Amino acid sequence: xxxxxxxxxxxxxxxxxxxxxxxxxxxxxxxxxxxxxxxxxxxxxxxxxxxxxxxxxxxxxxxxxxxxxxxxxxxxxxxxxxxxxxxxxxxxxxxxxxxxxxxxxxxxxxxxxxxxxxxxxxxxxxxxxxxxxxxxxxxxxxxxxxxxxxxxxxxxxxxxxxxxxxxxxx
Length: 170
Ligand code: SME
What we know:
Layout: H1 2-35, H2 39-53, E1 59-66, E2 69-77, E3 83-85, H3 89-97, E4 101-103, E5 121-128, E6 134-142, H4 150-166
Antiparallel strand pairs: 1-2, 1-6, 2-3, 4-5, 5-6
Bound molecules: methionine sulfoxide (SME).
């Protein structure tokens, strides 16, 4: 019983810490966007910020909608597959369904595209234009199984929402 209490207090503190980490991450993104909102600059620094700030990632970046498929955009990590058709892989699924997709184990996601064999779990979040069309997805991969908690999902969805409201494509 006592051990459980200690464990749950520790878990609570950990959650509080990572909530404030996400608040910091969001304000760092806002700072970067004050200087430049052009999508190449904004997405490049956003990828670098994620890779620097979040532990246990092996890829963080963007795929952009172009000619009804996804094409790789600014990212940090190993060179990645360039084109992803809608509906294919986790990115294509998230873009087609227009929904955040969290995959705790990529080996059990049918059609997962293994750009880096180290990837074990991932989260993909769609970004939209003002008319609510999907313009890009934020793709974050981890070598750790089940890396992305509900709190990560919320923090990263807010991160993506800040970006989608501010970036300009020209
Ligand atoms: N894993 C992705 C492909 C992109 S790479 O991981 C960078 C997918 O299945 O959509």
